[in-house]
Amino acid sequence: MSKLTNECIRVASRPSGIPAAEHFRRTSEAVPELGPGKILVQNQWLSIEPAMRGWLADANNYASVPVGDVMRSLCVGTVVDSAADGYNKGDRLMGWFGWQHYAVITPDAIVQNISTTDLEPSLYLGVLGLNGVTAATALDKLGQPQAGETVVVSTAAGGVGSCVGQLAKALGCRTVGLTSTPEKAEACKTQFGYDHVINYKTDDIAAALKDACPDGVHVYFDNTSGRISDAVMPQLAIGARVVICGTASISSWDPAPMGPRIERILLTRRARMQGFIQFDHMDTYPSYVRQLEDMVRTGKLHHREHITDGLDTAMGAIQELYQGQNLGKRLVRL
Amino acid sequence: MSKLTNECIRVASRPSGIPAAEHFRRTSEAVPELGPGKILVQNQWLSIEPAMRGWLADANNYASVPVGDVMRSLCVGTVVDSAADGYNKGDRLMGWFGWQHYAVITPDAIVQNISTTDLEPSLYLGVLGLNGVTAATALDKLGQPQAGETVVVSTAAGGVGSCVGQLAKALGCRTVGLTSTPEKAEACKTQFGYDHVINYKTDDIAAALKDACPDGVHVYFDNTSGRISDAVMPQLAIGARVVICGTASISSWDPAPMGPRIERILLTRRARMQGFIQFDHMDTYPSYVRQLEDMVRTGKLHHREHITDGLDTAMGAIQELYQGQNLGKRLVRL
């Protein structure tokens, strides 16, 4: 196996805002011999996540990737060689294998074994992966939507948002999605089943929300912060729950940008606002995946993928994500 | 009974900011005959609450008092005459009897019968009343402090804050109080048992908090919003709980003043921020009063009262409260 050459994308420098291709570099190196307990995985799919901006940021972050390291990424790959009990050549795995062709890992890097054969493996990086599970877990544990309530999603067509909308709809909620282009708005309506779709770039957000949410907003699933949130917050219903799952509209938090204070809204509406990070909830990951697999099989959970081919296309992909150029889960196929 | 004359303080106009004496007027009128089911109460104690500013505000409020009405207030009074089953002359009651000498009420205005004889009745407007019960309920249900955690209170010497500090201390927490004068700081240390006291008018709040909270802030019990909160929020610990119980430092919310955005803090710390209004929790009021009575009896819960005499002194009292002139629960004795 030592004859294999690995191609990797490493962190070249720490971006101050959104990571671009220039913050990465490609390296070529020999794949090391497998030590005991190790597994050699060949990646087929790499994931591009909005959270990667946070992993590359210095300040206020929970999990920085050091400069020089292979870029952290969830991937789907196949076991090529194994010196670890319970893992065999040909096993399909999803886990933290990084932006590279080959990864030598220990089992703690594995998020899940993909044992299904009827579902596309790439789904385990999207609708059946971190996106879908984040949506299901955060909506269930923090959002706690009840049938008949109104659920507003701030990135309605995105990987997480599109799942939130469909999960809330399946629970009997009225769903309202905010998105940025007519193409995404169309997908929100036809594919993701939103009851109302608001284009936050062209519509008067506050007025459109008032029309779409006559009883107020019971659950606000927020992936953006910024001016979308500023329009949603004053329309919270009594007892509303706000799930903070991302802050995609703000490019730098050092120092924190100013916005309208929200304490009075939280007080008068007895509302709850809470931050969510999936890594705190990995114990319940498998059970949410089962639930999502069932919904995909029965046609209740739709998804889109935006795929580019080749390792090098990963380098600019985070920036493209923040420019809103993708429609659906952003993946790199190797 | 119809010969009795009632003196009342009524709402004269709606203040745009903090209510002052000019927003009230005194009226004199006959006490009406008692109809069936009614109770005539003679007030002995009137309560002055920070929340009264909200009750008098137009916008974004949950419970406005109409202009012309007797000012809403919790009071302690004695039954003078009763045409309601279960209530007899001489009974001591705490409830919504208003800023007036006499109130003709129905039993739904009563918050509780005061059946204890070993505790001063005025306590049922403070440490054993809405203040104490708010502190106990919000800390328990929303703050959920654990032994060894750090609890920060933004109005440490106030009616609610002083109870929060003592309750948290009794649970084994490290308590840090913010207050505004050396006199209040002294009371926080000697009477309310805070481990650390910060004068938010003279100290560097952020630096003082960093010294006082080396493990971060696990529970922030906020009665102020504003610059105190701006210093506390970045020091939240992972999994912190923020209880929004009041917004005393902000005089107008229309429009909402600007402050540093907090979404990123909530996300990276997986923190929860929630508004609390005691009126949502009246079912558990009696059980928290029992708990507080026991603590008062055993000397574990101290309090201060700031008393003025005569109905007219109520009119300027809300403004005085916001000017920080009081030390302890603000009461008017009739």
The string of secondary-structure elements of chain A, in order, is: EEEHEEEEHEHEHEHEHEEHEHEHE
In CATH, the architecture of the largest domain in chain A is Alpha-Beta Complex
Give the N-to-C terminal Cα separation of chain A: 19 Å
CATH-derived topology of the largest domain in chain A: Quinone Oxidoreductase, Chain A, domain 1
Total domain units of chain A: 2
Structural class of chain A: alpha/beta
Which CATH first-tier class of the largest domain in chain A would you pick?
Alpha Beta
Domain Enoyl reductase (ER) (chains A, B): 17-332
Pfam family, one (chains A, B): ADH_N_2
Organism (chains A, B): Pollutimonas harenae
InterPro entries (chains A, B): ADH-like_C, ADH_N_2, ER, GroES-like_sf, MDR_fam, NAD(P)-bd_dom_sf
Task: Describe the structure in your own words.
Chains A, B: Keywords: Oxidoreductase. Chains A, B: It holds the Pfam family ADH_N_2. Chains A, B: This is NADP-dependent oxidoreductase. Chains A, B: One of its GO terms (molecular function) is oxidoreductase activity, acting on the CH-CH group of donors, NAD or NADP as acceptor. Two copies of one chain form a homodimer. Chain A is α/β, with parallel strands linked by helices and 334 residues long. The first copy, chain A, folds into two domains: 153 residues, Alpha-Beta Complex (Quinone Oxidoreductase, Chain A, domain 1); 150 residues, Rossmann fold (3-Layer(aba) Sandwich). Helices cover 24% and strands 27% of the residues of chain A. Chain A has nine helices and 16 strands. In chain A, strands 3, 4, 5, 6, 7, 15 and 16 form a seven-stranded mixed β-sheet that branches. The longest helix of chain A is centred in the middle third of the chain and has 14 residues. Chain A is globular, with a radius of gyration of 20 Å. The model of chain A has no long low-confidence stretch (mean pLDDT 94). The interface between A and B is large, with 37 and 37 residues.
